[in-house]
Amino acid sequence: MRGIDAAQAVPLVEEVVITMHQGQMLVPWPEGSRYPGFIFARGDTAEAVEAALRAAHARLEFLTGPAD
Questions:
Q1: Among 12, 21, 26, 20, which Cα is nearest to 54's?
Q2: pLDDT at 66 over 80
Q3: Spatial separation of the C-alpha atoms in residues 5 and 16, rounded to whole Å
């Protein structure tokens, strides 16, 4: 993962939690059963929170490689 600090710096974002670990297989839904992480934000309106979540997500870079 890259960009966690940048994602956490977005106004209204309270926390970015990455739950995946290096070496774990990231399988997309519906076959997969895990999220790579979570972004938590709080604001006065749903629109403001959604915009903050989208902005934070845009700052994240998911580094993936081929499955062994």
A1: 12
A2: no
A3: 9
Taking the C-alpha atoms of residue 52 and residue 34, their distance in angstroms, rounded to an integer, is 23
Q: List the one residue out of 47, 54, 61 whose CA is nearest residue 5.
A: 61
pTM of the entire predicted model: 0.83
Sequential DSSP letters for 5-66: HHHHTSTTEEEEEE---TT-----TTT----SEEEEE--SSHHHHHHHHHHHHHT-B-----
Q: Which residues contact 11 (CB under 8 A, 6 or more apart)?
A: 52
Q: What six digits make up the tokens of 54?
A: 């989208």
- Tokens 């006065």 label which residue? 44
